[in-house]
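Hey L., structure's done. Input below.
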Amino acid sequence: MAEGKDILLTKEGLQKLESELEHLKSVRREQVAERIKQAIAFGDISENAEYEDAKTEQAFIEGKIISLENTLRYARLMEERDIRTDIVTLGSKVTLQEMKSGREVIVTLVSSVESKLKDGKISDESPVGAAILGKAVDSQVSVEAPAGTINYKVMKVDR
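Output:
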């Protein structure tokens, strides 16, 4: 993430990140602090695997908190008016047709911090996302994949 660069998020995505941050700060921090306290109570911490594991988890949690705080610092809520229907933009719900098989897939283009393929949310930085960004209905795009080139046609762009 570039410093000072706005990160566009959907309302749902913003709420999810804020909720995750709150959970890490209020629940997970306390849980790991309690684990460290218990491990110290066992005595010699120089060869205490539980203590080392808890300290590693604590470092991970603190790193995740810093990362989420930085993301939220630059977050900007994506407004409905920001989402165009004439071309693919962040927030667009796009129906794509795979040219070879004719199979249709519906994806929503989001920022990388919000992407989740199983929910149909793809990053604008992914190969498919980058290829369709800025394209209009009836545009064709080619995406390089490990199995070869995949050709898609943009069938529909919605909010």
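The longest strand covers residues 148-158. The longest helix spans residues 11-41.

-- N.
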